[in-house]
């Protein structure tokens, strides 16, 4: 069980992700469009940074924008 974390959606769906996963990994697991339009995440009713390491039993809600963002570095 240590190789995976089990995360819940707000509706109670269980998502199995590799240990060390972040809200971005979760968003892309749900759907590519969710990952591409993600602007924030709420875990267990607290706003968290994108690099937050998800833990077993976390309940996550992803905030999205209707616009796609492209970053050039």
Could you write a compact summary of the structure shown?
By secondary structure, this protein is α+β, with helices and mostly antiparallel strands. 18% of the residues lie in helices and 33% in strands.
Order of helices and strands: EEHHEEE
- Beta-strand portion reads 25-35%
Helix content: 10-25%
**Average pLDDT score:** 90
Poorly predicted spans: none
* Biggest β-sheet: strands ordered side by side in the sheet: 4-3-5
Total helical elements: 2
Distance between the termini: 38 Å
* Biggest sheet architecture: 3 strands, antiparallel
Write up this protein.
With 73 residues, this protein is α+β, with helices and mostly antiparallel strands. Helices cover 18% and strands 33% of the residues. It contains two helices and five strands. The protein has helices spanning 23-30, 32-36; strands at residues 4-8, 14-18, 38-43, 46-48, 60-64. It has a three-stranded antiparallel beta sheet with strand order 4-3-5. Strands 1-2 form a two-stranded antiparallel sheet. A hairpin with a 2-residue loop joins strand 3 (38-43) and strand 4 (46-48). It is globular.
């Amino acid at each position: 069980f240590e190789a995976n974390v089990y995360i819940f959606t707000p509706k109670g769906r269980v998502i199995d992700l590799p240990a060390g996963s972040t809200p971005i990994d979760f968003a892309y697991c749900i759907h590519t469009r969710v990952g591409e339009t993600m602007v924030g995440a709420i875990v267990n009713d607290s706003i968290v940074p994108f690099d937050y390491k998800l833990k077993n039993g976390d309940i996550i809600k992803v905030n999205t924008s209707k616009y796609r963002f492209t970053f050039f570095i």
